[in-house]
Structures are given as structure tokens and as C-alpha cells.
């Protein structure tokens, strides 16, 4: 456990894939501690949370989930078993948690969706198999207390920062932002278009980054990597990064219309692992949809397959 500025504590949990770790944060309140995010439901998660709780001067009374991705949500129920804490989660985020992780038809839904964007059937099935690798390590908590923009938690204000996930929440207080995966230092958070997600995730993310610039937090405590001391500067870098990626996506749409799958090879290369290709296709689609909304691309659906042209 690391002691950070302002009494915030950080627990770093392992991940079996890159970036190899995820941070959970502990925030002191009047009646105890709030644990922000929980990692995966690994065999020792309950013991890890119990050990962290034993080092504190008060009990962990709340668990806040910033967003529904497995490395932030998966260990929620083991953390409840270790602490008896109340779980808080964004209203939209919980709705999507049930829709994805609690829905036995989801693999079929996403496989059909990948195929509609040009992914060959055998590759689509392989992508789904890779996507299910995390499934045994996701034990989310059913029936959390639901949060929305503007809610307060021990002096921390809840912010809705969609983009990386539709229902992504952050906490801000006194110039400090507990950011989940909204803004990271050395890597760009994945921003993908998925079935049944908000229609323009990259547009959402660019607006959230502009909001971060306006807020100008002194420090961001991210889900991966070290604290970010120039949050506004990093947000501007990410805006510029996506401007460049939009130009690359636009360039990929010649000389003829392309599917999102085909265009992903131009944007991300041909040497990705199967799991990484899932995210590459989703992120390519988020950029193509943003181009369409800016009047720079056209979406063409024919025979159940979607293609994009300039």
C-alpha cells in the first residue's frame, strides 16, 4: 500500500495482460474508507482486500466502481465479502454491466456485430473466445447504490466522463481527480464503438477531455501508471492524438469503401494478437463514426455488412 498526497492510499493489483497492473485507491471519510475499484476476481482478491483493510485506521465502508471493465469491476463481490462494504456504481454503468456481463446472449450479439463490420466468421468467433478470457474473473455486485453526475461522496463530487466507457465516473475534490481510466499518462485509453453503446464514444471522449482542461485538476490518480501532475496538458495531448488518428482513419478510406475490420489494419498494423484486434476494430469504428458526424465519411450498409467511404 502506497501513501499518496492528502491521505489517499493506493493498492496496486496484478493483471495477467498488459499493462500488468491496476490501481485501487482508498479515500478517507468521516465514517471510514471508500475503496475505488477492485481489480479482477483472482483467487486471492478477498485476502488482498482483507490485508489492506487490516492496515487502515477505520473500516472500508464503501466500494466505488469507476466503470464496468473487468480490471476495475471484476473483484467487486470478493471485496464485499472481505469488508461488508456498500457498493456504489454509476446508473448507466450498472445498466451496461448487466447488459454485457449478466447477459448469456451477449457473445452471440457481439459476434454478429463483428461480422457486420467485416470480420470473417472464423476470426469473429476467435475474437469472442479471446474476449471471454476475463469472464471467470468477473464477479460484480448486483443491486449497488446508483450514482449520477453531481452526487457527493464524502466531499468528493461525482463527474460523468464518458468515452473510455459510456458510464465512466470520476471523483474530484480540492484539485484532485480520482480518474479511473479517463486519462492515463503514457498510454491512450481505448475508446471503442461497441454494440448497444452510446452512438459516438469518441465525440463523448473529446468533450470529456475538454472538460478536464477546464477543470484543471492539480493531480489525477489514474487506474494505471503514476499520478499525472499536468492533467490539462495531458488532456490536450490526447485530443491531439485523436485528431491525428482521425486523419489516419480518413486516409484509410481510399480508394474504395472499407469495413472497420479492413481499416483497422491500416490504423493498427497486422501483427496484433487476437485480443488486441478486438479493441483495434472497436477503436477504428469509433473514429469512423466520428468522421461521419463531422461530415468527413459516409456509412454504407449493404447485405448486412457496413462499409465506410470518404
Explain how this protein is built.
By secondary structure, the protein is α/β, with parallel strands linked by helices. The chain has a single domain, classed as Metallo-beta-lactamase, Chain A. It has ten helices and 14 strands. Strands 1-2-3-4-5-6-7 form a seven-stranded mixed sheet. A five-stranded mixed sheet has the order 8-9-10-11-12, with no helix packed on it. Strand 9 and strand 10 form a beta hairpin. Helix 1 packs across helix 3 and helix 6 packs across helix 10. The protein is globular, with a radius of gyration of 20 Å.
Query: Hey, roughly how much beta strand do the residues contain?
Result: 15-25%
Uncertain runs: none
Q: In total, how many beta strands? A: 14
What is the H level of CATH, i.e. the homologous superfamily? Ribonuclease Z/Hydroxyacylglutathione hydrolase-like
Estimated structural class: alpha/beta
Which CATH top level class fits?
Alpha Beta
Mean pLDDT: 95
Categorize the overall geometry: globular
CATH architecture group name: 4-Layer Sandwich
Number of structural units classed as domains? 1
At a glance:
With 310 residues, the protein is of the alpha/beta class. The protein has ten helices and 14 strands. The protein has one domain: 4-Layer Sandwich (Metallo-beta-lactamase, Chain A).
